[in-house]
């Protein structure tokens, strides 16, 4: 895939970039290693000041970089500005809290004495240069939620971004440079996916994080495993959205529209499978379908647009194949199911609701990356949980019920990295984010995320640390 900026609203390629050659990649790897040896010795106050400056710079650039994001991957510009604001929030959150999150941990005095020590504690130390292989769908947020904790922990970062968002990738490197970070602390590698293995195998790279597809995650994990390097993977999702009889059905349907169509439906944590109790199925299906049908499709630079184009022609074709397969196997199309006649140029697809889904359909098993929802009618909570768990993915889940016993049952039995009640899944700096099964492993954000790329070092003293040992 060429490294280029192609406007998905028009299909026009605006700029093409030369991939970095092996010598340039080697120079950047060496800069990352050299920068780490110095940067790891800085204190939290210095790192926090740099991170706050980067956040300030990003906030000042909000309108400009939002338009860049929209141009490169088609996100409605209002959503792109919201993505910038979310990044700024996370950067300031880690600047404020990193020192506390990585504070030394002290076992009880009884356990210290039982170990034979006079003093013992755990100290979190950075690992080194971390390679981040990032996707196009949230081209700022996916990077910042890795970079903010990694840099605050004392690591350096190497970004291999998706090939269709090169302007955003280069902007991110420039952002941290403008904020005053030492040269080599954060660098973008303009390389193709075929070059990732060589970078990951380089001894100067300490660890890797990837957000993306299951095949990409499997590849990075196998290479890193061969090299015995730590990885964090956030992969695909086919998140269930359960609606039970005690729910506020009107509100559940309203939120369901947003949950399915955020980022033009191209989100790993977007709700995709709507599993509805038979007592409220008809009402929910009607309200949800009406809401999906009413969404405005159009130019993503228009402030009133709710649904922009998909990011690529291939992405739209993949979505069309899933819908056509479902239709062929008996699915009912309640709305959408085609390209909008009003937008013949660009890679648009109508918001779509499919009902009467069966296991014979590919869409029952595969992730839909676009504004297509599947509806399931279930008899009770047992069946709802069974359908929800009948997937290889386990990123997050949404449940609408006011019944406390049903909520506890879902927390116990839903196999996912998150369970969100009476609302939609959304990442937040204070909450750990990640999945189970083929949605990946490890966690981003919160204290869990910042400690993923740290060496939890046991420090043990047989004599008091301020008293010289006997010769």
UniProtKB/TrEMBL annotation:
Q: Keywords in UniProt for this one?
A: Coiled coil, NADP, Oxidoreductase
SUPFAM superfamilies per UniProt? ALDH-like
Q: Which residues form the Aldehyde dehydrogenase domain?
A: 3-459
Entry's Pfam families? Aldedh (PF00171)
**InterPro entries in UniProt:** Ald_DH/histidinol_DH, Ald_DH_C, Ald_DH_N, Aldehyde_DH_dom, ALDH_GabD1-like, GABD/Sad-like
Top-level taxon in the UniProt lineage: Bacteria
Which stretches are annotated as coiled coil?
22-68
Q: Which PANTHER family match?
A: SUCCINATE SEMIALDEHYDE DEHYDROGENASE [NAD(P)+] SAD
Family label: Belongs to the aldehyde dehydrogenase family.
- Output this protein's name: NADP-dependent succinic semialdehyde dehydrogenase
């Amino acid at each position: 895939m060429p490294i280029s900026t192609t406007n998905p609203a028009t299909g026009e390629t605006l700029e093409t970039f030369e991939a970095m050659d092996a010598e340039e990649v080697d120079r950047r790897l060496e800069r990352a290693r050299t920068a780490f040896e110095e940067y790891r010795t800085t204190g939290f106050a210095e790192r926090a000041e740099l991170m706050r400056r980067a956040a300030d710079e990003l906030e000042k650039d909000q309108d400009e970089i939002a338009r860049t994001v929209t141009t490169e991957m088609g996100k409605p510009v209002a959503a792109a500005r919201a993505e910038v604001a979310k990044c700024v929030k996370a950067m300031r959150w880690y600047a404020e809290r990193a020192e506390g999150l990585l504070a030394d941990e002290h076992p009880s005095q009884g356990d210290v004495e039982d170990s034979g020590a006079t003093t013992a504690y755990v100290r979190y130390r950075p690992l080194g240069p971390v390679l981040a292989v990032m996707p196009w769908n949230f081209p700022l947020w996916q990077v910042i939620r890795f970079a903010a904790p990694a840099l605050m922990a004392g690591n350096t970062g190497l970004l291999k971004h998706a090939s269709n968002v090169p302007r955003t990738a280069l902007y991110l490197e420039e952002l941290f440079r403008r904020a005053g970070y030492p040269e080599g602390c954060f660098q973008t590698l303009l390389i193709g996916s075929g070059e990732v293995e060589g970078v990951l195998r380089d001894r100067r790279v300490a660890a890797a994080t990837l957000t993306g597809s299951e095949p990409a995650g499997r590849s990075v994990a196998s290479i890193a495993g061969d090299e015995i390097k730590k990885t964090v993977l956030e992969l695909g999702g086919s998140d269930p959205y359960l609606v039970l009889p005690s729910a506020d059905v009107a509100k559940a349907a309203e939120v369901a529209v947003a949950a399915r169509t955020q980022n033009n439906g191209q989100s790993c944590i977007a709700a995709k499978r709507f599993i509805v109790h038979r007592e409220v199925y008809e009402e929910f299906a009607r309200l949800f379908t009406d809401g999906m049908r009413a969404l405005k499709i159009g130019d993503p630079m228009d402030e009133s647009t709710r649904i922009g184009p998909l990011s690529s022609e291939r992405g739209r074709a993949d979505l069309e194949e899933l819908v056509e397969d479902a239709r062929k196997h008996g699915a009912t199309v309640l709305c959408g199911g085609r390209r909008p006649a009003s937008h013949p140029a660009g890679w648009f697809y109508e918001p779509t609701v499919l009902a009467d889904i069966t296991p014979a359909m590919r869409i029952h098993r595969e992730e839909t990356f676009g504004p297509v929802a599947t509806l399931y009618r279930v008899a009770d909570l047992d069946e709802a949980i069974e359908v929800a768990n009948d997937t290889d993915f386990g990123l997050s889940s949404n449940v609408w019920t006011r019944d406390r016993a049903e909520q506890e049952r879902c927390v116990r039995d839903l196999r996912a990295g998150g369970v969100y009640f009476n609302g939609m899944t959304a990442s937040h700096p204070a909450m750990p984010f990640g999945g189970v099964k083929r949605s990946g492993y490890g966690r981003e954000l919160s204290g869990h995320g910042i400690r993923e790329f740290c060496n939890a070092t046991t420090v043990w003293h047989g004599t008091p640390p301020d008293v010289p040992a006997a010769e």
